[in-house]
Structures are given as structure tokens and as C-alpha cells.
Amino acid sequence: MALEKGTIVAAALRLLQETGLDGLTLRRLAGELGVQAPALYWHFTNKQELLDAMAEAMTAAHLTRPALTEPAAWREWMRDHAHRDRAMLNSYRDGARLVAGTRPSPVLFEVVERSVAALESAGFAVGDAVRGLFATSVYVAGFVLEEQADRTRPDADGAMPDMAAFQRAHPRLTAGLAEVGDPQGERSFEDGLRLILDGMQARLDRQETCEAGADQVSQAAGETAR
Fold it and tell me: What pTM was computed for the model?
């Protein structure tokens, strides 16, 4: 039976869960499928094309993200998508590395286009909408990259450092960590995301203030003309 592209991608994603990105090779994938490696080149000319297809398949469900139906609720909408993105990247071993190392699909650009329009409906200038979306996306990807790296690094199960010595050497960092908690924990994720959303809110407030001022100037000019 001839191999289908979807079958190869599905097998590659299963193998990714077992071996991680570093252990995923075309030779090993061919062995999983019971074929010789050259058979894969009928569908993918190189490994990068396979990785691109894997990333596209992994993010497929993400492309149907809910629309922003209430512009005033843009913060909750952005927060929901950030959590969905994090869960999606964490659904596969080395998922963040896979997506970061592949080119976006044309369909993803359509999703971003709709997202920009949604934020514009909430009052954002187009540039600030793009900045907010990019900042959130990069934050989520970086956060998950650290989460996944912590799980696989060689010293993940090693002995804890001398905390008393650490506290003496880094008192301010210790005080900050006591407030923040686990840098890769849920609270840290929420706090970092909130900072980005607060920044977007500040941009939106400033824009609305400028627009209100411009309207007042225009109104005053019109009254003067009369």
C-alpha cells in the first residue's frame, strides 16, 4: 500500500512523543512505517518539509479559535487564546521547539488577519493590534520552551542547591521569587500575560484619549467657524 502524506505526518508526531525532536530522524521514521527512508522523499524532499507539515498538523485545531464577539471583552479573548496556545504547544514533546523552527502556514496568516481585525473592532490601531498579538505569541512560545527544557535537561532530577548560600548571595532575587513563585508555574504565566495585556490596555487608553482630544479640537473649530 502506498504511503499517504497524512500517514507519515501522524507517525512522525507519534515518534516525536517518544523520542523528542533530537531523536526524530527520517531513518527511524521509515522504520516505524516499515519502509525504506527513500520512500519518504516522494512526499518530503527533506526533513525540514516534514517538520513544517508536522507543525501545521499540530496547530490545525488552533486555527479554528473562537471569534471575538464582544469587543469590550478583548482581554478575556486574548487570555483565552494564550492559554489555548500554551496547551497546544505542551500537547507534544518539544512542541515549542518544533513550531519555532518551522515556517508559518498560509492558513495561520489568515488567523492572524482575523485576529488583527478583531482587535481593531475593540478600538486598537492596526499597529498596536499586531504588536499585541506578536508579543503574546512570543511570550507564550518562550514560556513553553522553558517549561519543556526544564523537563528534559540533564540535571532536572539533581540535588537542590544550598538555599541558604543562594539567599545570602542573591537577596533581592530571593525576595522576588518568594513573591512570584515557580518561574514556570501557573501563577508566573498569568502574571507575565497580565503585564502584556496591561500594556495593550495602556496603548488603547492613550489612543482613545488622543482621539477624544482631537474630536474636541474639531468640534471647537467648527463652533468658531459658525
Answer: 0.82
